[in-house]
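Minutes, methods subgroup
Present: GH (chair), OT, SY

1. OT presented the first of two proteins processed in the latest run. Sequence and structure tokens recorded below as shown on screen.
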Amino acid sequence: MNIPKISEKDFIMILTGAGISAESGIKTFRDSDGLWENHRVEDVATPEGFKKDPKLVWKFYKERYFQSLEVSPNLGHIALVDLENKFQDNFLLVTQNVDGLHTRAGSHRVIEMHGTLLTCFCTKCSKKYTMKEVDLEEIIPPCLACGKPLRPDIVWFGEMPYRMEEIYAALDKTTVFMSIGTSGNVYPAAYFIAQARQRGAKTIGVNLAEPENSSYIDYFFQGKAGDILPSLVNLIISN
């Protein structure tokens, strides 16, 4: 493997997408025909869809939540934990995934920019709950504090991704940027690698296919993250 020289003084930002979780058995939401598992995006992934049919939306995300509990982190997730342990505060993992597999693997410096299946919050008082705390037998689970409807803690189309100020602040000091399992066509995340490279960062990509933003990648490794990351991380750690 040909990789850049990386030292403990470098700040590493990782961006992960659906590709790394697909290896664990998580279905990617969007099918080739643009439907989200036989549903229109507008029906299950927008505030308007939730307002129109909250029963359908809750049914959709309950299924995704229970599916996430049936799978386990893979070698790709685990390798990133080793990388974090090496670089400590000079490491940040930003994920577009909502399955919680990074935290279950043991990652701590994680930003779930699109939310998580593992929590929900009240549409009225904004109180947040873990899914384990609420009664998922209810068609639309109510807030335990005020009784108003809860909603999945997912960033839907038309909503602002979480913790963007922290992400942009980290990009300013990133010297090594690694994109893993992403198609490079979901914004604003797809532009992170360009921003990092424009600031002088070395860029690394790992994906099954060449992503759409591959022109910003200095070192590209084609294949499964679970196959590539253990060796790649070992090289970085011993570099």
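2. SY then presented the second protein from the same run.
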Amino acid sequence: MTMLPFLTVCKDSAPETLLELCLKYVVDHLDTICCIDPFTNDYKLKDGLALPSEIWEKILHVYQQCGHILDDRFVNIFKNPHTTRLQRISLRNSSITNDGLRVLLKQKLIELNIDNCSNITEGSLVHINKSGDCLLSLIVGSSVRLFPYFHLHSVYHRQGYILRTPNLRRLTVRNLVVHGEKMYFSLLLHSLHNLTYLDLSGCFDLGDLSYLCELRSLVSLILYNVKRLQDAIGSLCKLVNLR
């Protein structure tokens, strides 16, 4: 059924809900839920305040939507996972650092988007791997230096993995360029046997993709703007579960 134009206009011009208005007020007046730590100058959640995870996630989203800078100072309010619960968060275009991400990872996240977060580096990989059992979806976009540039005799090769997220279902890694390291992506995906969705758009030097044949649950594969895919045709033809 095609929606009539006047119905679309009515929907777009609908007034904001009471919840939306309240959330906007809160993020513009953080003193309603926070105080300032006199020693660190970070935001600190007021004692006795507890809200469900859905509200905290909306506060995080609206805070960015209203033009506020999402940084370590703000995410400090999520320092105590017993009073603030988060499951699904997007840090896209934020200025958060490894320290801020470490605070958020204590929440046992199941979905994490760190697209275009230029202050997140390889130092966060340790924290992600420590909390990796709960993670189901991970987006690592452009400008994020999460993954290492390494040689085969590095610690990652010795331990047998780069990313330790055994229950991960969806992984997006965009524009990761690794020159002259043919086994890199094989090691990156080595332990991710439960993947159903994989996006490697813009990544370079993926090799023949034969390592994808080990991902038995994979049904969605995106290889947009990946060079030399002709070298991987044989492997791609073996991925019979792709939709």
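Chair's summary of item 2: The first strand starts at residue 34 and ends at 36.
Next meeting: continue with the remaining queue.
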